[in-house]
Fold LytTR family DNA-binding domain-containing protein.
Amino acid sequence: MNCILIEKPHAQNQVKEYLNMVPYFNLVSFCSSVFDAYEILQSRKIDIIFVDTDLQRISGIDFIKSLAHKPLVVFLSDKPELAVESYNINALDFLLKPVTFNRFLKTANKAYDSFSSPIKKEAADKENHEQASNQNKTVLVKTDYKTILIRLNEILYIEGLKDYIKIYTSHKDKPVITLNSLKRLQQNLPSDKFSRIHKSYIVGLDHIDAINKTQVMIHDKHIPIGESYRNIFNEKMEELRI
């Protein structure tokens, strides 16, 4: 996390030492004036500001109020009565001088959690979106005199029988039968979710219950693994192995 420390020139460098001791803090600059700090904020991406409330010409609190875009803020002060005002402008923390290292570590952990939570949330949201997207993906299949939609995540396996195929799903007792070929259908299926394991079979990887050298088991069905498909299928299984 990129950070700057703003204190008066004669201030002790205690917090500066603490910042250099925490591995996830990168002290970009130790500023003795808000003007220097402002230039840094304009030119660098700063994640957190440590600022003394008692500065020259302008208070640390007023300086933070003047910023249009505020990173995380931690105030340093020897005036406990300023704590309420600091939290009114959404400061991450208020450290009363002299600052002990244990107290500083609590602030550091709070900063780390605040900084990483949006990143974790974004990653989780992306994963949830992808999962939801996969669950909603469908394939259109013509059967008899109608066209039906089948959700990809419900397909257990597909069996090819000369000029037509049977699609077995998790919510129907009987397969959906349609004029098609395994090769053509395979082109419309995501390769990370389906694998052709035999000239006559495509299986849904998420529905496999067990595997041995010659076959896979999906529910009560034993499906043979063709010799020419074995290596590619085994490679996919290795990627899923934990």
Q: What stands out?
A: The first strand starts at residue 2 and ends at 6. The mean pLDDT is 86. Residues 2-132 form a domain with the Rossmann fold fold (CATH 3.40.50.2300).
